[in-house]
Design goal:
Number of helices: 7
Radius of gyration: 16 Å
Largest sheet: 6 strands, parallel
Strand order of the largest sheet: 2-1-3-4-5-6
Structural class: alpha/beta
Length: 198
């Protein structure tokens, strides 16, 4: 009898952030405590001066291989990083789910320093990503002052993702009270219940 594969969750932080900020440590601790799941927070290099190729390389080295028990959770710039990484896979394997918070896939007017990062990966193959996972979820807040909610909604439409649009929450950072993120865990746990019992 073959050994059951373990569910793995990868959390991707964003611009000017780190694995130790916002709700990332809480989500890792809560998920590992409540479910038989391994959670890793990807430590992207030079978060204040990000380079897409470096971030994709770091993500690839951590993930190593994608399978049906792989789940991705990304925030802000981590979202476009993930989309470019998945899109660049020559043969993208099926994976369990992706959850994108305050993400975007096109330039952000008040963050011109990220334009090159966003464009360096070329067009994103949304069809490839949609074909690889049935569970695609996007979370945004209408009062996000960093990434306009319209950009996140557009990304959700490109992915045909289920959209959670909150009335408050801002960019879902510690400064806005998001050292914990119960809504995201509740959404994620639905997938974990399914993945860990298959």
């Amino acid at each position: 009898m073959s050994q059951k594969k373990e569910t793995r969750v990868f959390i991707l932080h964003g611009f000017e952030s780190s694995p130790h900020r916002n709700w990332f440590p809480w989500l890792k601790e809560t998920t590992e405590l409540e479910t038989p799941t391994t959670v890793q927070i990807v430590p992207f290099p030079n978060p204040n001066y990000p380079v897409l190729s470096d971030w994709k390389k770091t993500l690839g080295e951590m993930v190593h291989s994608i399978d049906e028990r792989t789940i991705f959770v990304a925030h802000s710039l981590g979202c476009v990083t993930l989309l470019h990484y998945l899109s660049a896979q020559q043969n993208l394997p099926n994976f369990a789910a992706l959850y994108l918070v305050s993400g975007f896939d096109q330039p952000v007017k008040n963050l011109p320093e990220l334009d090159k990062f966003i464009s360096d990966g070329g067009p994103i193959d949304f069809a490839k990503i949609k074909a690889a996972t049935p569970t695609r979820v996007v979370v945004t807040s209408v009062n996000d002052q960093i990434v306009p909610t319209d950009l996140t909604v557009a990304m959700a439409h490109h992915l045909d993702a289920k959209l959670y649009q909150r009335h408050s929450g801002g960019h879902f950072m510690t400064e806005e009270g998001y050292e914990t993120f119960p809504l995201l865990y509740d959404i994620l746990s639905q997938q974990l219940d399914h993945s860990t019992t298959d």
